[in-house]
Amino acid sequence: MIYELAEIAKKEVENNCDAYEIYIDESNVIQLDSLKEELNFAKEEIELGVGIRVLKDKKQGFAFTSDLDKIAQTAAQAIENTKLTKIDENYAFAEVEKVPTVDKVYDKKYDDLSLDESVEFLKTTIDTAIDSGCDVTGSGFTASRGKSLIINSNGVSIEDEGTGFGIGLSVMLEKEGEVATAYNSQSSRFFDLDGEKIAHEVCELAKSSLKTKPVETGDYDVVLDYYAATGLLHTFIGAFNGENVMRGRSILKDKIGSEIANPTLTLTDNPLLEKGMATAKCDGEGSVSKKTDLIKDGTLNSFIYDIYTANKEGVKTTSNGLRGSYLTTPMISPTNLEFKFSEMKDLSEIDKGVLTTSVLGAHTANPISGDFSVEASNAFKIENGELTEPINKAMISGNVFEIMKKVEGLKSEIKQYGSFIIPKLLVHDLRVVGQN
Predict the structure, then answer these.
(1) pLDDT at position 435
(2) Residue 436 — pLDDT band, cuts 50, 70, 90?
(3) For 263-273, what is the mean pLDDT?
(4) Of 339, 379, 337, which Cα lies nearest the Cα of 359?
(5) 318-360 per-position pLDDT tens digit
């Protein structure tokens, strides 16, 4: 069906503009949410829509619709919208290249997954947490299947398909007047999620966070658990956005070839990663997926670009023009960010430190300077290579670009959270301000 829709749209635009791009997106989603332990929201939704971009007289126009009877009007609107934009020589659409294969992005289990089965999965997760002695404050489960097709006037025609599953759980535990909370989540291309394991782990985290003790203010070796790491890394990754670089909003501007991170670190944007949550044959504008080393052995190697920004900067696109759906035009965004360390430290090597499971306030970090001050959450002291007592409220401050120069990987499981594929991270001499 999507090819038929693409042909309808093509006939409406091909003789009325200089170039065109048609993007069709079909999604099936099951979404469940609970308030405390009671399911309070359930949705099973199918959405299909068309986004049309055109170039005419070096101007760009865009329009979209989910009404499949109005493709002709949408095409006409896209052409009409070129009158609202300025002439720009840098507008262009993807060229034909060999399309790569991607592995393990579709789980056939989705085809037979029912709403009842999804509800049962989430209920089992909730019940496991309750049986473990915790109060559930919220939980959610999503399962989705997406199919897209992009064609353009240069001859590009790429169809992509994938599935995704996610589970999240937050709990609270009250004991002897003290309250502890904890949260965890898991996502996968496959329905191989382990809700019961997550429930046990998040409940154990809450239990171990009781009876907190203050920590002395000082400089510590700080282990950033996965959520804590990703919270701070969002600010770091923003500096690799080609548009930010072009507009002078990146501290990394003019630093290609300079050492910006620990020499043991190589950071790769990899849209071809097996089972990666952002793995795809191409980006949202039809540029075939390719790996990009952003950092190589600590040295800044590349930024990420879509076609427009790449043309303005006189470089090639890195296939990072992503789009959330047919409703939007492509925007520069990372795919699967692999943080690989050639050497890894062990927890046993840390004499005096702090581990924080997550941080509160990471969004307040200065996106240009990289300065941050965040609250450590579910944090613990590290003494002589072992986790000891939980820590009362503490603030952690520093500069994300400075800490990346000395960050190390900690021997731990490699996990994907959002765009980030990371181990736990170890940062030396980070300021921790204790609070009673």
Answers:
(1) 79
(2) low
(3) 98
(4) 379
(5) 999 999 899 999 999 999 999 999 999 999 999 999 999 999 9
Please list the alpha-helical segments (H only) found in 297-352: 307-313
Reference 289, options 266, 321, 313, 314; nearest CA is: 321
Distance, first Cα to last Cα, the chain: 63
Q: Indicate whether 322 and 349 sit together in one domain.
A: yes
**Cα(251)–Cα(240) distance, integer angstroms:** 9
40-44, Cβ contacts within 8 angstroms, sequence gap of 24 or more: 42/115, 42/119, 44/115
Alpha-helix residue ranges (DSSP H) falling in 103-194: 109-112, 115-131
Residue at 283: amino acid letter: D
Q: What is the dihedral of CA 183, 391, 232, 258, to 10 degrees?
A: -140
Same domain, 183 and 233: no
Instruction: Note whether 350 and 191 are within 8 A (CB).
Output: no
Amino acid at 277: M
Residues 220 and 97 in one domain: no
* pLDDT tens, position by position, 74-127: 999 999 999 999 999 999 999 999 999 999 999 999 999 999 999 999 999 999
Gap between the Cα atoms of 92 and 90, Å rounded: 6
Q: Are residues 155 and 234 in the same domain?
A: no
**What is the tally of structural domains in the chain?**
2
Task: Please write the tens of the pLDDT for every residue from 96-106.
Answer: 999 999 999 99
